[in-house]
Amino acid sequence: MIQHNEEMEKPIIVIEERPEVVPGQGEGEVPTIVVERATEEAKPAPKRIRRRVWVMAGAVVAVLGCVALWAGWRYYRDYIHVGLPISVTSEQNIAKLQAPVDTQVKPEVVKTTDSILGVALQFYEMRGLRAELSMNEPDTADMDVYLYCRSADYHKDFSIIGEMVIDGNQLETVDNWRRGYFVADEDNYTIGIARDNKAMRYARDKGGCFFRQFILLSDRTIPQTFYLHGKVERRAIGRMANDKLYYIATSHKETMWDFADALREYGFVDAIYVTGGYDYNFYRTADGSRYDIGDASRYPHKNPGRVPWLVFRRR
Fold first, then answer.
1. Exposure check for the chain: N or C terminus, fewer CB within 10 A?
2. Nearest to 270 by CA among 123, 79, 86
3. Other CB atoms closer than 10 Å to residue 294's CB: what's the count?
4. Mind listing the pLDDT tens digit for each residue in 276-286?
5. Do residues 216 and 246 make contact, with C-beta atoms less than 8 angstroms apart?
6. For residue range 91-148, what is the model confidence (pLDDT) as tens digits?
7. Phi/psi at 130 (5° precision)
8. Of the candidates 170, 163, 198, 162, which has an alpha carbon nearest to the alpha carbon of residue 80?
9. d(Cα 293, Cα 272) in Å, to the nearest integer?
């Protein structure tokens, strides 16, 4: 039987079927099966396509979000986070370098000694001096030099370990995994702890110097791991809470941990390691008198022109 529906463009086919009478079912109560042909508007295919598009777009956004989070974590881990509390940021250290210089301070190095936690230490406070890096060891007769020491480490081929800037010239080495640093411009100098390169770029732009070394103390905190083991003579540059910087040397062989622990106990806030604990260097007092540090038989150094020296001169 064919019925016409005025609201539909296509006819509706109604199929009536009379099966056998089921027991308990009255005559005339047979089911009627109606099959209608769906119109074009009722087809669900477009909805399924739209749903798939949204699912795929969501998946792409999720993947991109994960990649962005991973990249951010890597950047934070490699260039910002140092695993220790920071007492002074790179920006604050740059501001210190830009501060006016008191030219009335007389150039000198003042030596004191003390023993902390069984570690005998020599402290050299530097006053009225400026700092520079040089590949040439200073002459003992140079009256402008008031103290000098080793700075960064180097490989067997004499390539520098860690980033370094000498007289505004940046060496090709790009390595900031040693998070302690020394930075200086033509007037001031300081030390800091950071992975970022802000202080390094400042030294490069100002014609100054910069090098990286191991952390001994960061905001009075000792690193959990040291990469140098055993007992040897140790050297460091440390900063007190009043911003005074000292060159520090042990009188005997010490472990890195004992050295760092003694510096913390003495009152240093930050300290970075300086290599060459048994090498020779010297300092001068206010009257210009020179006094030896280390083994005088090791002067001059056996590798002239290849070792980066940190030199403190009169302004």
1. N
2. 86
3. 19
4. 888 999 999 99
5. no
6. 999 999 999 999 899 999 999 999 999 999 999 999 999 999 999 999 999 999 999 9
7. -120, 160
8. 198
9. 19
